[in-house]
Design brief:
This protein is of the alpha/beta class and about 280 residues long. It contains six helices and 13 strands. It has a single domain, classed as 4-Layer Sandwich (Purple Acid Phosphatase, chain A, domain 2). The strands form two sheets. The chain has a seven-stranded mixed beta sheet, with no helix packed on it. A six-stranded mixed beta sheet has the order 6-5-4-3-12-13, covered by helices on one side.
Length: about 280
Amino acid sequence: MWKFEEKSRNVHVLRIKLDCTHGEQWILLQSDVHWDNPHCDRAMLKKHLDLALERNAPVLDAGDFFCAMQGKYDLRSSKKDIRPEHQTANYLDSLVSTAADFLQPYSSILALRGRGNHETSIGKRHETDLTERLTERLRAGGSPARTGGYGGFIRIQVKAGKVNTTKSFVYHYYHGSGGGGPVTRGVIQTNRMSVYLADCDIVHSGHTHDAWQLPIARIKLNGNDDIEHSRITFIRTAGYKEEYADGYGGWHIERGGPPKPTGAAWLRIYSEGKDRFNYEITEAR
């Protein structure tokens, strides 16, 4: 059982009530779906959403659900990269309406709808917010979905059975920046982010279409003067756009882009017994 609440424009609370003292709650972490791009692996996306629905797992999307590069004023536009259903005079409206139809069966589990650089680019060029428009449609159908920012926070509060203790995990999402780097794949950014996000438990980003997770151990003196060990886990999700194919050609190939992984991640919150909660992250592919 879970409930998603908005505290401010990019601060939310996910309240989880586990069935028993050894219960669990799954959460699907996504980014870079690029749903409207012909290279989006919709079969994989549907598989993940179907499993999330079966698990009653809230979906947290960290931006670039839309690709939206085929409108006016976008120098990247190409007729071969547009789906037939979006070849209309009202291109941007069609993205929203068809996406809402696709997501409708999963509306009950859609929680965070973050923004990526593809959505913010549309806002700059066309003065409309695709993420807000989509979320409005989903909420009109009864979805708990809420919009977030390019970055933001979610406090995940967990309680199990009749236990009065509530455990909080702080989840930070940031869509991402830069090119990732051919060698580091963006992992080097964790050293910088761990300084100013020191109080987070999970930091989720996307953007570069890489997939990895990196736990960083921490140690501190708590309020009882006991030495306490903890960790902050950095997770990067690859998304669902597979544009390398056989390497024949195209923008990704011409700029020297390598094959990229695809997929998302599962966050599992679970109880280890009375007053003890933990989490683990696994790849969804």
